[in-house]
Amino acid sequence: MSIKSSVKEHFSPGQISEHFSHFFPHTRVLKATELVYRDEELDIMRFDLEDLDKCVELFRKVFRADPWYDDWISFDQARDYLSELIENPVFEGFVACEDSDIIAVCFGHKRSWWMGKEFFVDEFYVENERQGNGIGTKLLDYVAESLAGEVYTRLTLLTNKEIPAESFYLKNGFYNNPKRTVMVKELIIII
Ligand SMILES: CC(C)(COP(=O)(O)OP(=O)(O)OC[C@H]1O[C@@H](n2cnc3c(N)ncnc32)[C@H](O)[C@@H]1OP(=O)(O)O)[C@@H](O)C(=O)NCCC(=O)NCCS
């Protein structure tokens, strides 16, 4: 096992960052935040590990609200979940900022599917008060355009039926795949 994988196996991204910055105070673990798009309203940057806590706060705030009402009981629980996405070696993430505030997030991962390379969107969200102002569309357009430039052939994701997010994706060129279903098997916890 390489040193990198061994470190990844034993520490969360936050801990890795803390350890590296302790021993290498002038070295960033991930590449510095990279501005990839700017207009009068917002900046879009590649996700940087330093943004994780802000993304977690926004994630909890957005998904606690209508129509999701997700009960992320603690900051750490939500942080663990997003950290697991980020630890995926094929993770790719973008944040949209207004001034220096993160107002929208796209986290996903790349997949080498038989039909061509595709990007699976794991989480996509816009700050509550700013929804409905074109920010999600702008972020999605950027992600789609940059991936198309890397020969990615499609975006895929899971969302709930008959909620505003479904209309948002339909308006942005997604379609429902009637051949697919989501299957879940509940497990009885054995202690
Ligand atoms: C879904 C979401 C990402 C869309 O981003 P957005 O910036 O609000 O959307 P845009 O302004 O670019 O596009 C507007 C369209 O999105 C849809 N929409 C989705 N949520 C909306 C909201 N809360 N307010 C207004 N429009 C919303 C509407 O169809 C709207 O079209 P319309 O103006 O013709 O009615 C964002 O509303 C959001 O974060 N919602 C909560 C979290 C969520 O559902 N994420 C997706 C999970 S898979």
Output the CATH homologous superfamily of the largest domain: Gcn5-related N-acetyltransferase (GNAT)
- Total number of beta strands: 6
Strand content: 15-25%
Q: How large is the count of helical segments?
A: 6
Q: Cofactors and ligands present?
A: coenzyme A
Structural class: alpha+beta
Shape: globular
Using the coordinates above, name the CATH class of the largest domain. Answer: Alpha Beta
Distance between the termini: 32 Å
Task: Specify Rg, calculated over alpha carbons.
Answer: 18 Å
Q: What CATH architecture of the largest domain would you give?
A: 3-Layer(aba) Sandwich
**How is the largest sheet built, in terms of strand order?**
1-2-3-4-5-6
Description:
This protein has 191 residues and is α+β, with helices and mostly antiparallel strands. It has two domains: 1-30, no CATH class; 32-171, Aminopeptidase (3-Layer(aba) Sandwich), CATH 3.40.630.30. It is built from six helices and six strands; from the N terminus they run ααββααβββαβα. It has helices at residues 3-10, 13-23, 52-64, 75-87, 135-148, 164-171, and strands at 35-38, 43-46, 91-98, 101-113, 116-126, 152-157. Strands 1-2-3-4-5-6 form a six-stranded mixed β-sheet, with helices on both faces. Helix 3 packs across helix 4. Residues 1-14 and 19-31 have low confidence and may be disordered. The structure holds coenzyme A. Coenzyme A is lined by residues 62, 124-126, 131-137, 157, 159, 164-165, 167-168, 171.
